[in-house]
Design brief:
alpha+beta
């Protein structure tokens, strides 16, 4: 999507790991593909293997560290789109549910009101299909927990279509892939304002 002397933004397809995984299958990943073109590119954040969309790389350790700090400080504006089962009654909402690993069922996460880390997601309805049931949502995670969007939506009764971890069988079978896409990434730093977009492929 973009490359300059400081950073690189790639559009990851669904089904591709962000970073190397276990075994021979894990050798093909977004970081390896990007580093074949820019050897100094270091991944700043990750998307789930099943999620498509924008991933940011810093060119060299110093830039990667600065961008990682911006992510940790919630200075990044991250936007996603998802297609979910069900018809939310409200137009917008906020999900505030703490999340923690579900160790006996890894890699699943779980809502844990005692030991979970604070996790907040804002959502807005973009479209509803009243006839068949799915809705298209715009999502803004204010935190960056593992599986946050997937689990938050499932927890309030609107699982993402094609979600193999958190959707019931009928919702999983309703799409050939997880219908979650990282469509926008923006931030402001000493170099100015940055904003990158990726068309939603579903």
């Amino acid at each position: 999507v973009h490359v300059d002397a400081r950073l690189l933004v790639a559009d990851k397809p669904a089904g591709l790991l962000c970073v190397p995984g276990r075994g021979p299958a894990g050798a093909d990943n977004l970081a390896a593909r990007v580093q074949a073109h820019c050897t100094d590119a270091l991944v700043v954040h990750r998307l789930d293997m099943a999620t498509s969309g924008l991933v940011l790389f810093g060119r060299g350790p110093a830039v990667q560290r600065a961008l990682s700090i911006a992510f940790a400080a919630r200075q990044m504006d991250k936007r996603y789109e998802a297609v979910v089962a069900g018809l939310p009654a409200d137009e917008t909402g906020e999900i505030d549910l703490p999340l923690a690993p579900d160790w006996p069922h890894r890699p699943r996460q779980q809502v844990d009101r005692v030991a979970g880390k604070p996790s907040v997601t804002r959502w807005q309805v973009l479209a509803r299909d009243a006839a068949t049931g799915p809705s298209r949502l715009a999502l803004q995670p204010l935190t960056g927990r593992t599986h946050q969007l997937r689990l938050h939506l499932a927890a309030i009764g609107y699982p993402i279509l094609g979600d193999a971890l958190y959707a019931p069988p009928a919702v999983l079978a309703a799409a050939p892939r997880l219908l979650l896409h990282a469509c926008r990434l923006g931030w402001q730093d000493d170099e100015g304002a940055h904003a990158f977009h990726s068309p939603v492929p579903f």
